Batch of 2 targets.
Target 1
Amino acid sequence: MDAITCITTRKSIRGFKPDPVPPDLLREIFATTLRSPSYKNSQPWEAIVLSGAKKEALTQRVIDLFDAGAAPTPDLAEPRAWPPAEEARIKNLYKRRAELTGIDLGNPEIIRKAKKANFGFYGAPHAIYLFQDASLSLWSLFDMGLFAQTLMLAAHAKGVGTVPQAFATDYAREIKEFLGIPATKRLILGLSVGYPDPESPANQFQTDRAEIDEIVRWVE
Ligand SMILES: Cc1cc2nc3c(=O)[nH]c(=O)nc-3n(C[C@H](O)[C@H](O)[C@H](O)COP(=O)(O)O)c2cc1C
């Protein structure tokens, strides 16, 4: 698959086959991902691949916290407000998704269900958590974004689906404890990882994008 096709056909996968991804293939995907650029080649990223009984146990732990009404403990706060242009795009996403899939993320009960689906990694056989030292600057957070995108593209090029999940870090403090990640690290992103289920209704949805001229200005 060429780079342009890989970028334009990648999408978030939220329905997976149960088949595990062979460990050698996951290693190959990470070997590619490690080529991501970073500020001064500092490579400020660490990852945990979670599978099997441990993944199920973490899901249960997080769902128990959620059902008990425990306050979330994310290392990166969930945004509470957006500038107008970004807010309009989010509303557009919610509206289109509700029309096409019936999943209305404006509805609190649906949000609860959606959160639980996130905590269960959408049934994927693997989850990946990305984290880094909490003392690192915002540039390192930027680097982690590049790492995450390279990971998703490298996986997609090998037929492996992913979805990046902020929600999977809602209970960062407890997740770090469970995974043995020191409290001095910040948990940045969870990703569900596995082979896409082409029949899954969740995978039929295709997001759109703003027009080029809404984003790019040409100055001469
Ligand atoms: C930083 C970040 C956090 C996200 N968090 C979630 C999440 O918690 N749950 C989820 O289902 N999707 C999540 N997404 C996926 C976005 O909804 C998705 O990337 C966006 O709608 C564009 O769709 P596409 O990935 O299919 O192109 C997240 C994406 C990013 C980049």
Target 2
Amino acid sequence: MIKPSESCVNFDQSYCSHIAAKLEATQAYMAGAQWGGLVIASGALEPIFKDDYHHPFVVNPYFKEWLPLTGVPNCYLYIPVSGRPSLYFYKPQDIWHKVSALPDEFWSRHFDILEYGDEALLTKLLATIKGRTAFIGPAAALPSVPAAADWQLNDAGLLNYFNYRRACKSAYEVDSIEAANQRAAIAHKAAAEAFHTGASEYEINRAYLAAVNLREAELPYGNIIALNENGAILHYTHMDTEAPSPSRSFLIDAGFSVNGYAADISRSYCRDNSDSGALFSHLIAQLDKAQQQLIGQLQVGQEYLQAHLAMHRMLGDILYAAGLIKVDGESALAEGITSSFLPHGLGHLLGVQVHDLGGWQRNLAGQIQEPPAEHPYLRLNRPLADGMVITVEPGIYFIEPLLAQLKASTKSLLVDWQQVDRLRPFGGIRIEDNVLISERGARNLTRPYL
Ligand SMILES: [Mn+2]
């Protein structure tokens, strides 16, 4: 087992190249589009309606891809069309809350860091920003100072530029995602162990967090910890405090963040020794094998949609061999049967966002290509490119409303419903890894650790 301390990566050098390349490309784009400067806000605290508390702070992803300062609202990154970027760091006088210290980390020396604590000082600092200026961030974070009055809010061209480029990661970003995988794997192992001792969903989640000293709010997304039938609820985030009896199957989809970059990993387990349990375990093993085989075939230039369709054929073959359906994979895909067992897409872009934007974007200009109507939930519909980090997450689910629909249709005859009924109490299966696409082939960032 990997200890948390072994996952410490030195980001100093890779960040150095990351920021240099990012700054150069962005400033060239800004010059071409005639921007004098770009201000990116970390974000603002969002008040809860008629309350004196705020929603948990989630940093602006456009900010996070420049520097891993993820917990401080009201900070502004200023990128001039030439020269060094500045960070206006919010450090108020506050006796109620913990005030973050001025950052002194591997990334700090790449910015001129200017501290401010009130509007008067921010007004003075921002007054030095001249020329045509763009602002990226929520409207609530736009500073209410005179200098900001003419800034252009969330220009579509700039957003398209960042959304498209975000898909391909620098070495620093890949290292961050891999480190996140390493930590998530430790937590996943603890969760699996808790499941095998009969723990409840709530207890399994607690084991996950405790294994890596994590608070729930630090997760990149709400953990999915689903026992038995709950595995069929795709975004199940309710956590039962009572263990079901019997506890048969476990689907976990849970991550970790390093430098604001997410790991997004799913695994499935079974501890039921009946014949039906053996069949479900067999499906887990077969899907796992197919997923790895598919990852081995991913190539630069390949449309991700083709991989998605290949997975549906493989899934159809698995269901056919296991006696759940009466036609092979090719026919099952053509008949649309496999979508009843796997309604979601094969995967998505992964990075500063769990589902990075730009998955349907075909070019820098922002041209969108939606996936075909039969596969509406495919979040990634562009050719694989060198440096992309994606998830590959096939599943097999026994989702009541989808099965009812299939049963009521003319395709019902192609299904062995007795076999399907045996598996309903097990919910579903999802196997999800994070994968780096490169000219040398796909590199799995999850499997070395889990
Ligand atoms: Mn995912």
